[in-house]
Design brief:
Elements: E1 4-10, H1 14-25, E2 30-33, E3 45-46, H2 49-55, E4 74-75, E5 81-82, H3 86-94, E6 102-104, E7 108-112, E8 115-118, H4 123-128, H5 135-144, H6 163-169, H7 174-184, H8 198-214, E9 219-222, H9 228-239, E10 243-245, E11 252-256, E12 259-265, E13 268-277, E14 286-299, E15 312-316, E16 323-328, E17 337-344, H10 350-353, H11 356-361, E18 366-377, E19 386-388, H12 399-413, H13 419-422
Helix pairs in contact: 1-9, 1-12
Membrane topology: Peripheral membrane protein
GO cellular component, one term: Golgi apparatus
Subcellular location: Cytoplasm; Golgi apparatus, trans-Golgi network; Membrane
């Protein structure tokens, strides 16, 4: 292991694996190590159910009512892919998708005032929905909006006009505003209302364009769970010469004159010019900015009032941080009905904060609770050349994760992340040109 590398990557979380794959394609010599014996890091998958019990330190063994242990594959941090989103583009442009199968999520819903409302997936549903009202005119405006074409602005300055003023221009009611901001633009709070409207309009466009791809919802999920996503980019890196080592203890990150020069493991030192890692490897270079609670529930039934959907997302808007319910099932070959509830912690009693979600899931099944710190880097890497990812937030989509990937890429290379440039670097994952 006493070699010189352009880059060492610590952890096989999805963020690190994507960066490893992309940098390998860009010609970097990479060593990728993880202290864990499995791929996926904190965002890995658990199977069989007996291992889930061990992970959460629960006594006994899974009851027969939960099904056969090896039939379940539980993602610890499940997130959906926006059908026209950034992660799908990364997968398509690198052709990592050639051995991964995805299936559309059957519906997107909002829970408000004790009722579940389906996010319309067709124009007919939109016109019939009690939430819509004057919404159609607004959606037409969003569909035609192009921030590079002033003719599409209709008197709105996307860099100055707030989203609150845009809603007012289209005379949208509070229910529609809540629905738009949280279910379509996927904001976790209402802070966006006082910000320039351009980003929000583009978020709604992404939702609409993703929805148009498959019709039922804008979301995709991999069959058999997410565990193969990081491994796909691992294979991509390996084809370009990347070296991988699992179950590798990290003894020390070596820094000289404020800059990383290598990593020590089992008495050997691998030298490098740059380092990518999760916060868990450099606790002294990150800070805690909050917490996320996630509750995994294994059910024997679909969620009520969702038209017996085998998979869905439900957003529960809150005054502070929204609650997300992500449900998948045997339709995605992950076992029985698995629902994961998540939100950003705001109080000292996190489980009470998600009390509205269990109402949706009754009768309640087996539950597994975790509370994770939200960690962000205090070291931006400019001097140290140590580039640290964010921990995963409470959202049920990968867009914020991809924003983090692009940010790290730009800091490491000094160049803006360009999806179009990736198109010229496609590869057959099996190693054929």
């Amino acid at each position: 292991m006493n070699e010189e590398y352009d880059m060492i990557v610590l952890s096989t979380d999805l963020t690190e694996c994507i960066l490893s794959g992309i940098m390998s394609v860009n010609g970097k010599k990479i060593l990728h190590m993880d202290r864990n014996p499995y791929y996926g890091g904190e965002s890995g998958s658990i199977t069989p159910l007996e291992d889930l019990y061990k992970r959460f330190k629960l006594p006994g063994t899974p009851p027969a009512s939960m099904g056969r242990g090896r039939d379940c594959n539980v993602d610890l941090i499940p997130k959906f892919l926006m059908a026209n989103g950034q992660l799908v583009k990364m997968l398509l442009y690198t052709e990592v998708t050639c051995y991964l199968d995805f299936k559309v999520i059957e519906g997107s819903f909002v829970y408000k005032g004790g009722k579940i409302y389906k996010a319309p997936s067709t124009e007919a549903e939109a016109l019939a929905s009690s939430l819509m009202g004057l919404f159609r005119k607004f959606l037409v405006y969003v569909a035609n909006f192009d921030e590079k074409d002033t003719r599409t602005f209709e008197g709105i300055d996307p860099k100055k006009t707030t989203m609150h003023d845009v809603y007012k221009k289209f005379d949208l009611g509070q229910d529609v505003i809540d629905f738009t901001g949280h279910a379509l633009a996927l904001y976790r709070t209402d802070d966006y209302l006082d910000q320039p409207c351009c980003e929000t309009i583009n978020r709604i466009k992404l939702y609409s364009e993703s929805l148009a791809r498959y019709g039922k919802s804008p979301y995709l999920y991999r069959l058999y769970g997410l565990e193969e996503l990081p491994q796909g980019f691992v294979r991509l890196s390996a084809i370009y010469g990347g070296t991988y080592m699992l179950n590798k203890p990290i003894e020390e990150i070596i820094v000289q004159n404020g800059k990383v020069i290598g990593v020590k493991s089992e008495g050997e030192i691998a030298h490098c010019k740059q380092l990518i890692c999760t916060p868990s490897y450099v606790k002294e270079r990150v800070e805690k900015v909050g917490q996320v609670i996630r509750v995994i529930r294994i059910l024997s039934h679909p969620i009520k009032n969702t038209n017996d959907a085998n998979s869905c997302q439900i957003i529960i808007p809150q005054n502070q941080s929204d609650i997300y319910v992500c449900k998948i099932s045997s339709a995605h070959n992950v076992g029985k009905y698995i629902a994961i509830v998540s939100t950003t912690v705001e109080t000292k009693e996190p489980e009470k904060e998600i009390r509205s979600a269990p109402e949706l899931l009754e009768p309640i099944g087996h539950k597994f609770v975790s509370i994770s710190d939200l960690l962000v880097p205090t070291d931006l890497g400019t001097e140290s050349q140590i580039f640290i990812s964010h921990t995963y937030d409470a959202t049920t989509h990968f867009e914020t994760t991809c924003d983090d990937i692009k940010d790290i890429y730009e800091k490491m290379t000094g160049s803006e992340f360009d999806f179009e440039e990736m198109k010229g670097k496609k590869i057959d994952i099996y190693g054929e040109d």
